[in-house]
Amino acid sequence: MTQPRKSIHGSWSSRLAFILAATGSAVGLGNIWKFPYIAGENGGGAFVLVYLVCIGLIGIPIMMAEVMLGRRGRQSPINTMRALAAEAGANPAWRWLGWAGVVAGFLILSYYSVIAGWALAYVFRSMAGVFTGATAEGVSSIFTQLTEDPERLLAWHTLFMVMTMIVVARGVKSGLEQAVRFLVPALFVLLLLLDGYAMASGSFDQGLNFLFTPDFSKITANGVLIAMGHAFFTLSLGMGAIMVYGSYLPDRTSVARTSIIIALLDTLVALLAGMAIFPIVFANGLEPGAGPGLIFQTLPIAFGHMAGGGLFGTLFFVLLVFAAWTSAISLIEPAVAWLVENKGVTRVYASVYAGVATWSMGLLTILSFSHWANFYPLSYIPVFEKYTVFDLLDYLTANIMLPLGGLAIAIFSAWVMRRRDSVQELDMGDATAYRLWHFLVRYVTPIAVIIVFLNVTGLVDF
Ligand code: TRP
């Protein structure tokens, strides 16, 4: 038997630390900002159902595969894939999977940081009490004023990138582990509070109905792809973030149980967020398909009308910033780990290089909300008719790059890697559970991803 490798970057202090870090990566803007607005844009119930099925059949098995590959390789995803390809006697080109992940992470973080900047701005607006008693129109114009001002967006985006680079520079253990330990429970409490408010809004049933009663006439082929892409996005899969976190995982930890816990927590946060937001949308006669501004145009109404809303609003946006922060770190970690391994730079320099590059790319997103707000580069393609540069970046990464990355991870883990190696690394104890995982990753994930892709291009039609 081969000796397990060791990571040069250190490792988590315990299994709990890994769960917290991976949950911190998974739970982020994807759950609270993105999930509600894409569910709203794609008709609600049917979209949510497809998303949940994708979490169960694709997300959890792929998360197990990523953790397994990372823990076996014990390096940045690029070098992990190189080492594991060599071990399996496969083509060294598999390391390109690691590269594609680095690029995807860089593109995602470039816009993620701009949105996280909105959350930062909202911390200060809540604190100043600007939402107290505000109407839906008032809240909406506060949002537009922010997003249409490129200088403000730039300031907040810069602050968020600096925050991210500081934590990444300090390494996996100090900072990161501590932050998540408090964050995740606090976020749950605040979301429950908002759900309580939503229950009293008079439109709770209508909100629940929108989210949980599937109406398949409302979902398109593109909507199905968006739901699947979001399953990858929300669980941080398909680009090596969970792989690199897995590479810091202590040897004897149940990959299966850990992955299931993380996926359940993540899904719960998204559903709680949706259940808070849609009743407020309907109670105020707002549009569920309002787009990326949805939570920023709805939740402040709730905070503006509840007792202690100034305090809760501030706290909520602080937690949202933390949730985004712990996710941002994981988006850049694969690149930083690679720079340290291959370029011999310290973590500090690696973080600065990767951070500055991402920061510059973020300018495209900032422009998308201001000067380029009506610029639709691919308007000649029907699906992308109304897609801004930001929308396209998000679509390319979440709906194309991540599922393709997931497909490649599935093929590698269940077709290329030797079976005895995955048996050993997953160490499930239970042969049936292993066989179920292997079946899902070998057949279900690849076929599902391919069918959804073909469906959206119209090559096959369901
Ligand atoms: N999962 C995070 C969220 O929902 C975002 C994120 C972090 C991510 N790391 C990732 C998305 C890696 C894709 C890939 O907000």
UniProtKB/TrEMBL annotation:
Membrane topology: Multi-pass membrane protein
GO cellular component: membrane
Subcellular location: Membrane
Keywords: Membrane, Transmembrane, Transmembrane helix, Transport
Membrane-spanning residues: 12-33, 45-65, 96-121, 153-172, 179-199, 219-248, 260-282, 315-340, 352-375, 395-416, 436-456
Protein name in UniProt: Sodium-dependent transporter, SNF family
Lineage: unclassified sequences, metagenomes, ecological metagenomes
